[in-house]
Structure formats: C-alpha cells, structure tokens
Specification:
The chain is built from eleven helices and no strands. It is mainly alpha-helical. Helix 6 packs parallel to helix 10. The radius of gyration is 20 Å and the shape is globular. The relative contact order is 0.12. This is CDP-alcohol phosphatidyltransferase-like enzyme. One of its GO terms (cellular component) is membrane.
Length: 270
C-alpha cells in the first residue's frame, strides 16, 4: 500500500521513513533480499538512510559508494595477515548496508532509473568477481615490491572470477531473453524459480541444506576468507588461503552449471 509522504522532506521521522522505504512487499521479495538484510542490516540501513537524506546525495551516489567499498574490501586482501581479511569482512558488511540504503533513498525521493539498477548490478558483479581474484593474489604471497609478478595462484583466482561472472550472468541473461522475446517482467516470487521437474525440484531443495553456492556471495565469501586467514595465522603460512581458492574452482563450476540447469528447468523462460 502506498504511503503519502513528501519526497522533498529530507528529515523524516524513523516511522515515516520505514513506512515508505521498507514496505513488507519489498522486503519479502524472493531473490532480492540477502539473509543478512532481513536479519540485521535492514535495522541499520534505515538509520543510515536517515543520515544520508539531508546530505542531498542521490540514490546513484549511494550505489557508487557501495561499489567503491566493495572493491576496496577485495583489494584489502593484499594486506597480509588477519588485518586484510578483517577489513574485507567489514567492507562486505558495509557494502550490503549501502546496498540497502540506495534503494531506500530512491523510494523516499521517488526517483527511480535504469541507471540505478545498472550500477547496482555492476557493484555486485565487480565485488564478487574481485574477491577470488585478490584471494588468489593473496594465496600467491603478493609482493608490493614486485607488483608485476603474476603466479599460478593468481591465475586460479582469475578462473574462479570468470566462473562467478558467468554464473551471475545466467540470471540477467534470462531477463534479457524474456525482454527480447516480448515476455513480461518476471515476478520475483518463489514459484517462478521452482523447477518444472519434480526430480529437479527435490534436488534443488536438498541443496538448501548444503548451500555451497553461497561461497561466491560477497558476505559469505569474505567470512570464508577470514577463516582461511585464521588457518594461515595458525600454520604460519598460506595453506588456508591456498586451500580455499583451489576448492572454489570445482564449487564454482558446479554452482554455474547447476544455476544454468535450474533456469532452463524452471518456467522463467516460458
């Protein structure tokens, strides 16, 4: 239900802001809300949004900050030891926090544009591909004194990044295919993603108990990197980071192929 408000009012109360920018139908979207958003980040983003509104920053400006924070967090993995991993974890939390706020700013000001959606997609593509790249560089013992050196660990990280980008493209290409064939915009509800085959549906449900595909989402990936960094610190070498980047290769292959099969087996291309 639409709530009447003044989009030019940059100092709303929390209650006014929440009623407009966090409507239940938006929070309940099937694919658009990260679990961290529903669990705690939405409770924080409303306060961030209230602080951002008086600054005059646009929703696209907030999205740009999200991109910078995400990429910066990935680059931080070049800092050796636990420090780089901790910075990465914090940055990915902030990235999703700003990701929540950019939409909230847009909904309050009633200013929506394809540019905002486009920048948002770029932000997630760049961040989630950059994490394995810089993890690979970290696993190779990146040396700031010789930045031109690229070893096999960096190549493995790049391979994972390509697979991550390919996997993410499957969803967006589905929307492109529907648009080019004159199909309407797909509703973001669980029924559209459910496989038509009962066997595929059971397999998809069983994978919910082993969500390895989440290893390539920014927050989860950063937490795995932190665990690997702890292992590195305990062993006094890079065994944790190297193990993680290697394991990511088959997981990324299975995730991408599974995603492609799920799209083709569902009604999303009907």
């Amino acid at each position: 239900m639409d709530v009447a408000h003044d989009p030019t009012d940059d100092r709303p109360t929390l209650a006014q802001l929440k009623a407009v920018v966090q409507p239940p139908e938006h929070i309940a979207r099937y694919n658009a809300e990260h679990w961290a958003g529903a669990l705690y980040l939405r409770h924080l983003s409303i306060h961030l949004t209230r602080l951002l509104l008086p600054t005059g920053i646009s929703a696209n400006g907030v999205t740009t900050l999200m991109i910078v924070i995400g990429l910066g967090g990935a680059v931080a993995l070049l800092v050796p030891g636990l420090v780089g991993a901790v910075v990465c974890v914090v940055a990915m939390q902030l990235q999703i926090l700003f990701d929540c706020s950019d939409g909230e700013v847009a909904r309050w000001r009633q200013r929506f544009s394809p540019t905002g959606i486009y920048l948002d997609r770029i932000g997630h593509y760049v961040t989630e591909a950059a994490i394995p790249v810089f993890l690979g560089m970290r696993a190779g013992g990146w040396d700031w004194s010789d930045p031109r050196r690229v070893d096999g660990w960096t190549a493995v990280g790049l391979l994972v990044a390509v697979l991550v980008l390919l996997n993410k493209s499957f969803t967006d290409l589905m929307h492109v295919a529907r648009a080019k064939s004159g199909r309407p915009v797909l509703a973001d509800v669980v029924d559209t993603a459910r496989p038509k085959s009962s066997g595929m549906a059971r397999l998809r449900s069983s994978l919910a108990y082993l969500p390895f595909f989440r290893a390539f989402i920014a927050i989860e990936a950063s937490l795995l990197v932190l665990v690997a960094a702890v292992v590195d610190a305990v062993h006094g070498d890079l065994v944790g980071s190297r193990f993680l980047v290697v394991v990511m290769v088959p997981l990324a292959v299975v995730t991408a192929l599974g995603h492609l099969a799920a799209v083709l087996a569902s009604s999303r291309l009907d």
